[in-house]
Amino acid sequence: MSRYGDWCARHDVAPVVDPLLLIGAGGLVVIAPHPDDEALGASGLLLAAAQAGRAVGLVALTDGEGSHRGSTEWPPERLAARRREEQALAMAELGCETAEMLRLALPDGASRWHDDFAGAAEKVAALCDRTGATALASTVLFDPHPDHEAAALLAEAVHRLRPHIRLLSYPVWSLRHPEDKEVDVEGLHPFRVETPIVEKARAIARHETQMGGIVTDDPEGFALPDWFLRHHQGPFECVFWHMRPGTPPGAEHFETLYRGDNDPWGARDSAYEIEKREDVIQFLGDDWQGSAIEIGCGEGHLSAALATRFSEVTGFDLDPNIVARANARHGAPGRVEFHVGRMPDDFPDRPFDLLVLSEMLYFLTEPEIETLLSRACRKSQPGAGLLLVNYLGRTDTPLSGDDAADFLRMVAAEKLTLERSIRRDRYRLDLLRFRAPPGEA
What we know:
- The protein is α/β, with parallel strands linked by helices.
- Helix content is 35%, strand content 23%.
């Protein structure tokens, strides 16, 4: 639990990131409790997905028929139809006119308690399948409205059915909480995306029934207040990343894998490993010198290849057996050395010109990735590089290769600059550069 004021202070200074890093390599599905929530809280995600040509799905939990219960001119059926039209127009303003719409038509204000809510997760999961979604976004659980809470619970249920999909949350009405309100932020990591000011303003304006100018015979009817609109048309939108549950395998897993002379991934002579190492060296280019560190070095084959570019290469792995084999195969005292170390706790206390994280990042949790990055920033030489090599197949770890790489790039958004990135069929390479600390640039 956290005080809401403390949580706001944290997400108000969270890294500003590329929305596509939050979404991942595939499509995006957004759950909107009512027509207008998609425009208010998820415009940045939706527009980015549309502009990148990604498939987009929108789940309308309710049709919002309860916003003007006192109107006789706009009974629930007529209001619901109008709000559906407004939502479609708003999505078009965000470039999502071809988005697949899933309208659950649950009762406004009571969606969570309707009999059809129980089967909604299967329907949303099927939409995620059809759109090739790598991310599912909903309102956050502590948004103070029963339908917003229901949307968050629905997203969690879908995630249990499709655990490989990233779960994201966006706040809409959370700002109504007092600062001392206790909110459950366990497992949430805040990021910010730039608000698409013009497109978002147009999308919000499409929800005319909520702006106070269409339904005129219900003085008690709902209208979005000015202070609320000003907040949601600020320069940034908040998006919360749900950390993946589960624990990566420990040292005993690797001890078993490497026991004897085992080469479980064919690192010595498989075509995949040989071609990948050659690709890494070519991707890096020739403009390197000084020292390199490889974390998760295994038998040291990539470290040995790096020695063609660097005068000093040091590899680290947590299994003593594999480190001994690396030293036996490739060790050259003072030039290529290998040591036992568990990351991030044993991050080397030495400067480097290049840090290589090759197919090991997804064996860490998100907090461990943050800690590793923080320690690396303290030891990097000015202009040093960070090379990420991530497998894109099944990893049997809480984070996939894409998840781990994108998460690191997001938490590093204000500390490193992406120099280049490529995506192969089975792996991806990302080269980043450490920025100089303030005053040293």
